[in-house]
Amino acid sequence: MNWRLVMGSPEVVDYVVVHELAHLREANHGDTFWSLVAEYDPKYEDHAQWLEEHSSELIFSEGDL
């Protein structure tokens, strides 16, 4: 996990936690894995897409310091 994740929304942070915890039961990204993720985060596809599009924006600027 990346420390920049703390700057994401709680829903996106929860998605990443669920995603990583699901790997404790399923090592790959197969159908069983995604079914498990969906069980705990029904909007996981939206959250994954948000990360794909916005992860590079999760940075501190000088104004944040």
Description of the structure:
There is one protein chain. With 65 residues, the protein is mainly α. The protein is built from 3 helices and no strands. The chain starts with 9 loop residues before the first helix and ends in an 11-residue tail after the last helix. The mean pLDDT is 91.
Briefly say what this structure is:
This protein is an all-alpha fold and 65 residues long.
Layout of helices and strands, plus pairs?
Layout: H1 10-22, H2 31-40, H3 44-54
Structural class: mainly alpha
Q: What's the main sheet like?
A: none
Judging from the principal axes of the Cα atoms, what is the shape?
A: elongated
Low-confidence stretches: none
Helices and strands, in order, run as: HHH
Q: Based on DSSP secondary structure assignment, what is the total number of beta strands? A: 0
Give short descriptive properties of this protein:
65 residues; mainly alpha; 3 helices; elongated
